[in-house]
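Table S5 (text form). Sequence records supplied for joint modeling of the two-component complex.
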Amino acid sequence: MTNLAIAANGLRKSYRDKDGDKVVLDGIDLAVPEGTIFSLLGPNGAGKTTTVQILSTLIRADGGQVQVAGYDLNRQADDVRGAIGVTGQYSAVDKLLTGEENLLLMADLKHLPKREGKQKAKELLEQFDLVDAAGKPAATYSGGMQRRLDLAMTLVGDPRLIFLDEPTTGLDPRSRRAMWGIVRDLVKNGVTIFLTTQYLEEADELADRIALLDHGRLIAEGTAEELKRLIPGGHVLLKFADPSRLDAARPILGVGTPDHDALTLQVPSDGSVRAIRELLTLLDERSIDVAEMSVHTPDLDDVFLTLTGQQTDQNKEALR
Amino acid sequence: MSALTLATRDSSTMVRRQLKRLLRYPSMTVQLIITPVIILLLFVYVFGGTLGTGLGGGRHTYINYVVPGILLMAAATAATGTAVMVATDMTEGIIARFRTMRISRASVLTGHVVASVIQQLLGMAVVIGIALAIGFRPNATPVEWLAAAGLLTLFVVAITWLAVALGLKSPTPEAASNAPMPLVFLPFLGSGFVPTDSMPTVLRWFAEYQPFTPIMQTVRGLLLGTPIGDNAAIATAWCTGIAAVSYLWAKKTYNKA
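The corresponding structure-token record, covering 577 residues in total, follows.
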């Protein structure tokens, strides 16, 4: 049996404001095995950051049983702090200090011996491509560099469990891919990653398991493949030049949903090259021209929009 | 390592961080030192002649009289800077990072306090140096100098913890720059610039009982040989009290946030 890096049951949190209690987390359960990447996915305001703040001891939950890195979150908060590393949504570097000084500060606070701290700082500067900027104040760094320094600081002291709260929000595509590479390398060394993101692509690329959070509840959980199976599958969309071709195509293929206004035929398909070639060959043999064709495979966007869409509609109802 | 050793180690790490930050951002320190120097020059050269005559002497009488008040004012001005530094620091993500690490909780605040105290004592040394250059003539023995330095250090520690607490309580750095403002005026509303017995009754009552007056009277007595009376005990009690209350207040505010 694998050990759980995070085990939460019935995690609850609400804030009091002038409109009364606002429920942010409405009883969520989490089970994250050691050495895996777990992604919490959700729109802005779903409660992702609150979840990370609770699990990283920044704020207290109102209810629920939580164990992080094998320690009870409430009774052994300091032991939890010793085992985790957190890279928050907002840059957590000291902007007046240089990159190297920031890393050495972390080494001192992790109580590493001087020489070991210097060695670790040097390694991380190299690993995160910050050697040239090591002597410059962090305030002069670009967004991507600050994010890399931020993560490098988190890694000082080799935490077993790392929280990454929207680590690539606001980064350009190249920096984002670089960050993904770093995250994958970390997991190879047995570290557990708890990642929040609003990018479905990111969760799909990185995560072993994904949970969808919406309005403080987990509305789905599983691997990317499992989640994709939750909604109707892929299809090929064929567009014809006139209605007679559309009508002729439908019986030949035997399946498909025609749309006479748009002159399209939606044919269920796994989207593989072989399936598409067979489909086109069938039509070609009867000399039926296809004007346009598009292949649609289900992705997490579909899952996300389908599952959260229902909630949004309910909310609109409630507002009326 | 014991909890105390760890707390000391974390605190000294934070002090180093804060001193580096002060060096990186020297304009604040420079401004905090220049302000009291300008007030000193203003009061000695512009008002000093007339005010000195009121004291039964001249400009040289007045410079001796005003230096203790300027020293406290320098500390109060620096407290404004400390409050802003703390409030700014709290808006940075790095504080959230510190909170998720296994380090002594109060070490962040201790770092601010110790660094600010060092900064302020340096500032006071500059003020005293300039005062000596323009005619300040204390007649203190080395022991009296040490005693004065000790009391001023105690005062600086107290006012710095107060500034840290005010900085933590402030929602924004702008608000933090206003909160300690009244402290800057306390030397005026005491025996800092003119003797309290020249003031109208209500103001005199306030001036004699507010904490800055016994501190200024004690420093004046130590450096210039004027009578101290029970001012030394009252001054020490005020400083210790303000430091203790502010420390607890700051710690509680930091832990709650």
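Note: Chain B has one domain: 3-256.
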